[in-house]
Amino acid sequence: MKYIYICLLICLIGFSACNKREDFEMIEPEVELPPATPGSADFSNFVALGSSFTAGFSDGALFSASQNFSLPNILSQQFQLVGGGSFTQPLTNDNLGGLALAGNRIPGFDPRLVFGGAGPVPLESVIGPVTVTTDIALNNPTGPFNNLGVPGAKSFHLLAPGYGNLGNLALGLANPYFVRMTGSTPDASVLDLAVAQSPSFFSLWIGSNDVLGYVITGGDGTDPITPVSGPPGVGFDQSYGALIATLTASGAGGVVANIPDLTKIPYLTTVPYNPVPLDAATATAVNGAYAPYNGGIQAALAALAGTGLFTEEEANARLISFEASATNAVVIEDESLTDLGAINPAFAGLPQIRQATAEDLIVLPASNFIGTLADPNNPLSVNGVAIPLEDKWVLLPSEQMEVTDAITVYNSTISGAASAAGLAIVDANNLLDQLVNSGLNSGDFTLTSDLVTGGAFSLDGVHLTSRGYALIANEFMMAIDATYGSNFEASGNLVDIGNYPTNFSPTLQ
Q: Where along the chain do the CATH 3.40.50.1110 domains lie?
């Protein structure tokens, strides 16, 4: 018994020794942060202009929950700590997404996407038919609105009168989302509605849609890239310059963001170029079907040898060959290939097709198209195998170059205009690079550009999740700190991105 007491006494002495001051010297005292200050910025009347990224678009739709987590709404809540005022948004009527006109759904404006267990699926495939209640003819909200983000808007659209006039919708001159905002001034432009509020501070993130339409249509020409040059309302340079000049004319401060390289978004990087599984028998049958085509390519090469009109390198790239494998490349149309029929009518029957390579970018919706039958009655009419993918499904290397060239020039314009006006600027292009290459860290989280699992991009592969918008909001605040001397970061008033969701339940109403 005495031995036990001695042991206890030794333990107590040891415990007491461990509580000496010197043993706690490694514990750093809590740092008292400075109070939040606005610096030279005046956040009392904040107005945000832009497109989908400003509106809070996510999962292929605009819905009230995503709007509440929109980039400018997150900013406005932090601005209120340093003199910011109220912030009004044109909230939709539900969390279903989609738009209606006089009780009828507007084609192309469908309910949101949800996670279906393996990937993105339409909401109605999970919960059944829904009634879209946000009706641009029956129940538009009342402004003025601080959030003037219009999904689908290009740079010149922000200057366009009548872009929110319901009467122009059938003419293709109006945007249903903006129709909800114009109220009693249907012909007012987005810029008009912003200036009418005499903003003390603004955000402008515009230009992505000037190239995005070209990207998501595979560069097929139906939605061309906005030209760099041209007067306001036509060319990007002067349209953007007019926006900045007008917004800053009365001394407002602001923050702008440039355009990320859209060839790196998951809409283009998720579907592999070689997703076709074939067994040996099927591969043999498909190769047999392509034998006449391959023979024609070889005949053309022989006939045009020495002319410089058709190279062996191109001929080899155009030969079609499948094997017993889970990773056969799809067959695609490529208008950049030599039109052999134009050179020699004898080869007019040879299409401009080839198998895709890792340099080709397949659009996300192709995941539900590749492998389907062009003719339900013909089991050999497999899209992407026997039937080449049309241009709209693939962004070719030459088309990717057009996109990146345009973005480079646009971003030069944005940088120059922001610097000249003394505005804060967010390098969204660099942020996307980080998401792609190493991930972006914030608090306990690392976000990447991977679809579904990365946390930054929503299920449509283009727009951000609410957590992604929160991450970007912090970048906006840090840029404002650097330009205007505010201290959102130093005062501990950046947002915790863990408080913002990466997905929404199908049952969210």
A: 46-269+399-499
- Can you give the pTM of this predicted structure? 0.92
- What span, in angstroms and rounded, lies between the C-alpha atoms of 171 and 29? 66
Beta bridge partners of 253: 201
Token pair for residue 326? 């889970």
Residue whose tokens read 């060839």: 263
- pLDDT grade for 301, boundaries at 50, 70 and 90: very high
Q: Where do the DSSP E strands lie in 87-229? A: 100-101, 104-105, 113-115, 120-122, 147-149, 201-205
Dihedral of CA 271/469/246/185: which sign?
Answer: positive
First and final CA of the chain: distance in angstroms?
Answer: 69
In terms of Cα–Cα distance, which of 320, 322, 318, 319 is closest to 284?
A: 322
What CA–CA distance (Å, rounded) separates 352 from 336? 8
pLDDT digits 0-9 by tens, 106-135: 999 999 999 999 899 999 999 999 999 999
Q: Which CATH class is domain 46-269+399-499?
A: alpha beta
Residue with tokens 């009392």: 44
Distance, CA of 236 to CA of 2 (rounded, Å): 90
Give the burial string for 355-388 (b: 16+ CB within 10 Å, else e): bbeeebbbbbbbeeebeeeeeeeeeeebbbbbbb
